[in-house]
Design goal:
It is built from 8 helices and 7 strands, in the order αββββαβααααβαβα. By secondary structure, it is an alpha/beta fold. The strands form 2 sheets. A 5-stranded mixed β-sheet has the order 1-2-3-5-4, covered by helices on one side. β6, α7 and β7 form a beta-alpha-beta unit. α1 packs across α4 and α6 crosses α8. The protein is globular. The relative contact order is 0.16.
Length: 227
């Protein structure tokens, strides 16, 4: 059995499990996956395993979701999975790569990269992103990565080699894999038991954050000087 599937087996051993906005409920025939907000609804449309990619692509209003771990997964659907392999396929479609990252984290093999290191290795049009100040990082990460309206990943990376958290504007729970980020966004300090929670882990800044850093620097450079 693949290590990721063995890990998944242990995580879904309970009656239900959660990962991001996704809920996995066991049944006599297998498992039902749906949006956490939709649990208990009887008007959900049935979907095939392969439809998970489309579910992850657009929000409720039909807008494209560039960040798959943003808290705007569309509602109104359910997918039946016979076994762990099918569960894994659905999770990988909705939250690409997150099970592999979790597997590496659980085995102690996950390597994190500080934001400064990520920015310093950029080239071409993104090279200017490395010029962002610590104060700008504090504000930008606090807004961009927040669980409410930003991203549901738990941040594991630091701002720089000094091991400083990337933003003082984020609560301590944002850096704790035991905290349910979706509940935390609604009710600060909310957490679920580890047997129910499959965390979305963030080992390094994503491309969207790097782009935001570049845009912040360029915007600052374009701003008129104070008189």
């Amino acid at each position: 059995m693949k290590e990721s599937r063995r890990l998944l087996d242990s995580l879904v051993a309970e009656k239900f499990s959660r990962i991001g906005q996704l809920e996995i409920v066991s049944s006599e025939e297998g498992f039902v996956l749906c949006h956490r907000d939709d649990v208990g609804r009887n008007d959900l449309r049935d979907g095939e395993i392969d439809r998970a990619f489309e579910i992850a692509k657009f929000d409720d209003a039909g807008n494209y979701r560039p960040l798959k771990t943003a808290p705007n997964l569309q509602h109104g659907w359910k997918i039946f999975a016979r076994d762990l392999l099918q569960i894994e396929k659905v999770i990988d479609a909705i939250y690409p790569g997150r099970l592999a990252v979790l597997d590496a984290f659980k085995s102690g093999e996950l390597t994190t990269t500080s934001l400064r290191e990520t920015l310093n290795r950029q080239s071409g049009m993104y090279r200017v992103a490395a010029k962002i100040s610590d104060e700008q990082i504090d504000r930008l990460v606090g807004e961009f990565c927040r669980s409410e309206g930003g991203c549901l990943r738990t941040i594991l990376w630091k701002r720089d080699t000094c091991k400083k958290d990337p933003s003082s504007k984020l609560p301590p729970e944002k850096f704790d894999p035991a905290v349910d980020q979706y509940l935390s966004a609604k009710r600060p300090r909310s957490a679920t038991a580890a047997t129910e929670l499959i965390p979305l882990l963030c080992q390094e800044a994503c491309n969207l954050l790097v782009t935001a850093c570049r845009d912040t620097v360029k915007l600052q450079g374009a701003a008129p000087s104070a008189p």
